[in-house]
Amino acid sequence: MAKNPAAHAVELHRWAIVIDCHSDILIPVTAGKMRLGQRVEVPDPRAWCPSAGTGGGFENFGFSAHTAHFGPMGQYDLPRLVEGGVTALACAIYLEDHDLDRAVEKGLQMAWALHHEVESNANFELATTAADIRRCKREAKVAAILSFEGFEPLGADLHLLDLYYKLGLRIASLTHTRRNVYADGAPLSPVSGPGRGGGLTALGKQAVWRMNELGIVVDLVHINDVGFWEILESSTAPVICSHSTGTMFVTPGQEEVSPLGIPGRPGLSLPRDRERLQALARNGGVLGIIFFYKEALDDVVADIEVALEVMGPDHVGLGSDYYGLELSPAGLEDISKVPALTRRLVERGHSDDVILKILGGNFLRVFEQVWKR
């Protein structure tokens, strides 16, 4: 008798190690707007009226007042992570423009905030080895992975990378959308800056070498074209693109179009073409498929299927990057809804083995290869 797809998806998700390789939840946690142990309910954007002084950063991103203020609140918290069957969540340290004049201090505050949440919640643990993630799965805990979205928290002192490694840092991108002393970032859109042609600086090349030596996964997200290829050529270990989209490449004979469906706004991050995706696969790396800015669950599934076609089943994972209820896909509005993605992949006829790789097996394989035991 054929398996019932819905029941089979529930069983498969229960067995899966589910890894989400990008969230910005440390931003509101560090700001004191929420605690991870409490389920956060955010007001409906359509009915919410900001009070005087309410707002947030991300001035260059074109976000509404609601999204700028609440960000990923109501989309990630421990109750939702447990409900979604998530085994591990990468929690990024990202610095907004207004924090750059105190970057080292702010980065350490965000690292402290994650450690404080780990100490405050018995079912939340900082993972620094792949074995930690496997154990958290057995013990029904949620693992946190400390990551960088840009090297700004180090200032110009690469020695601080070793300190962050001791604090648990295991994934790091050199840039976000701006230039720093390590590399040039790729701007999201014309309002966030013009295109730049520089790649890695001498310090950036040292940073890649040191990450390989320490056992920190190099993240290609937001790096510009030149830096993308320089990292792939120089890294001695598999790299990842923690949160991007499988449709961000040029199909032969067609012009590149925005995967976001927003006029004038290009793709969120590299890689943008078939050549880059295939190069990432040859490296042994993994592309984390983003949920942010998608219209609906099926759009996320479509990205996954394009990435599977281009890269193969060993190189596709999840990197949700939720940031605002207004910008989340219908049917996949927050991290608790990830089982719906598993169900849709089952309904689409993907094998159990492939689904388990997408949900977390591929990222776990890279972690096992790169992280020191």
Question: Could you please describe the fold and organization of this structure?
Answer:
The chain has one domain: Metal-dependent hydrolases (TIM Barrel), CATH 3.20.20. Mean pLDDT is 89; it is low at 247-271. The protein is an alpha/beta fold. Strand 4 (142-149), helix 7 (160-166) and strand 5 form a beta-alpha-beta unit. Helix 1 (5-15) packs across helix 12 (338-347) and helix 11 (297-311) crosses helix 12 (338-347). The strands form two sheets. Strands 1, 2, 3, 4, 5 and 6 form a six-stranded parallel beta sheet that branches. A three-stranded parallel beta sheet has the order 7-8-9. The chain starts with a helix and ends with a helix. It is globular. The chain is built from 13 helices and nine strands.
What's this model, at a glance?
It contains 13 helices and 9 strands. With 373 residues, the protein is an alpha/beta fold.
**Name of the level-1 CATH class:** Alpha Beta
Distinct helical segment count: 13
The name CATH uses for the topology is: TIM Barrel
Number of separate strands:
9
Largest β-sheet summary: 6 strands, parallel
Q: Give the SSE order as H and E letters.
A: HEHHHEHEHEHEHEHEHEHEHH
Helix proportion: 25-40%
As a whole number of angstroms, the C-alpha radius of gyration is 19 Å
Please give the domain count.
1
Low-confidence stretches: 247-271
Mean pLDDT over all positions:
89
CATH-defined superfamily: Metal-dependent hydrolases
Strand content: 5-15%
Shape annotation:
globular
Distance between the termini: 44 Å
CATH architecture grouping: Alpha-Beta Barrel
User: Helix/strand-derived class?
Assistant: alpha/beta
